[in-house]
Design a protein that fits this description.
By secondary structure, the chain is α/β, with parallel strands linked by helices. It contains 6 helices and 9 strands. The strands form 2 sheets. A 6-stranded mixed β-sheet has the order 3-2-1-4-7-9. Strand 2 (76-83) and strand 3 form a beta hairpin. The longest helix is centred in the N-terminal third of the chain and has 19 residues, at 3-21. The mean pLDDT is 94.
Length: 201
C-alpha cells in the first residue's frame, strides 16, 4: 500500500474511533437488535450451517445474540483466534464454552492458542458464511477495517480452500452501526476485499 493511501486510511480511523467510543451502550444495543433481526431474515443466514462470527467490542454491532442463536439452532459457530498477523476461525461448542473464554489484549473473548479446537479450514465443509466487522463503510460497499488486514487475508485463504474442494466463494455479511456509515467514498487498495452485503439500521 502506498504511504499516502495508508495515511488517509489512518486519518479516517483516528476520526472514527472517538465517535464510536462516545456511543451509549443502550444506543448500541438498540441498533444491534435491528441489525441482528435483519441478519436472521437473510436467506444466506438461514441456509448456512457453518458460520463464523466476530466477537464484538464497544462501538460495533453486538454479536452475542447471533452466537447464541447459531448454537441454539445446532449450527457450527466459529470465532476468530489471532496469532501475530494470522487469523483462524475456530469452533465453539456451546454457550457455556463461549462464556468461559478468556479475554485478549483488546478485551475480547478469544480461545487460548494452546487449546485444541476445530479449525474451519481443517474440515471438509469449511465455512458457508462469514459475519464480519469493520470500522467504517461507505455507501458503495467499501469496508475500512482496523488496519491489521485480518479479514482481507483470511478471505483470500478461505476462498482458496473453497476452490480446492469445489465449493463456491464464501458468503460475507458485514454489520454496521449507523455512525459507521460514511457518505464520502472510502480509500481502498488492491488487497481490500469488500463484504457482499452490509447490514445497518
Amino acid at each position: 500500500m502506498n504511504p499516502a493511501l495508508r495515511a488517509l486510511k489512518n486519518t479516517i480511523r483516528k476520526d472514527m474511533r472517538p465517535k464510536l467510543a462516545a456511543l451509549e451502550p443502550e444506543e448500541i444495543k438498540r441498533q444491534s437488535l435491528i441489525v441482528t433481526e435483519k441478519l436472521f431474515e437473510l436467506p444466506v443466514f438461514k441456509e448456512s450451517q457453518n458460520v463464523s462470527v466476530y466477537i464484538s467490542m464497544h462501538g460495533e454491532i453486538c454479536t452475542r445474540d447471533i452466537i447464541q442463536t447459531l448454537l441454539h439452532q445446532n449450527k457450527s459457530c466459529y470465532i476468530p483466534r489471532c496469532q501475530g498477523k494470522v487469523m483462524d476461525m475456530v469452533k465453539i461448542d456451546s454457550w457455556e464454552d463461549f462464556l468461559s473464554l478468556p479475554k485478549n489484549s483488546w478485551d475480547i473473548p478469544e480461545p487460548k492458542m494452546d487449546e485444541v479446537r476445530e479449525n474451519a479450514l481443517d474440515t471438509q465443509h469449511g465455512l458457508d458464511l462469514i459475519v464480519m466487522p469493520g470500522l467504517a463503510f461507505d455507501r458503495t460497499g467499501t469496508r475500512l477495517g482496523h488496519g491489521r488486514g485480518y479479514y482481507d487475508n483470511y478471505l483470500v485463504k478461505v476462498n482458496e480452500y473453497n476452490k480446492s474442494v469445489g465449493r463456491p466463494p464464501v458468503a460475507t455479511v458485514a454489520l454496521a452501526l449507523t455512525e459507521q456509515i460514511v457518505d464520502a467514498p472510502l480509500p481502498r487498495c488492491e488487497t481490500d476485499i469488500n463484504p457482499q452485503q452490509i447490514l445497518h439500521p
